[in-house]
Task: structure prediction
Amino acid sequence: MKVLLVRHGETDNNATHVFQGYGPVPLNARGRRQATLVAERLCPVRPSTLYSSDILRAHETATIIGHRLQLPVQVCAGLREWNVGAWAGKPTATYTAHLEAVNAHPVTHIPPDGESQLQTQARMIAQMQTFGEQHRGETILCISHGKAIDLFARHILGLDVLATPAYGIANTSVTIFTWQDGVWELVTLNEIRHLETL
Result:
């Protein structure tokens, strides 16, 4: 199986570094343009199935892509972003300052009404394993979120989950993995060549 993990398009909260959580935050104009461009990038791949996180910004991205690829969008809660709980709608810098004040690590800390990044990683690993079993020999496309994709990539690369990785996951970037005989391999990380016109 080959799986293409695509981050959703940009939102105003992305641009201003405000946590979105599971809230109904739509794409902004740039995000919709990004989704249109990545849809063109994905046309030659011809995936058999299109999954999306059920959070609005991901589903809106998937709808734009699905229209171009003529694929229905299948909602999958396993592809959701890290749940920041009560911190949704607040600046990320404020959260960082809070963690420093209480001497907590961002990966292991559980925000009120949320989940730790370790829990997000475990959810993504389990979901990808399920896809691997369900779609043997296929190419599938999944629209997810930056932190969720990053945490899965760290797992596959064998990186220390507590350390900040030397890469980012940009809006509508394409990250590709293959799965064969129970073994994952990273093929492409954070590819954004389709965004050059922006």
User: Anything to note?
Assistant: The chain has one domain: 2-195.
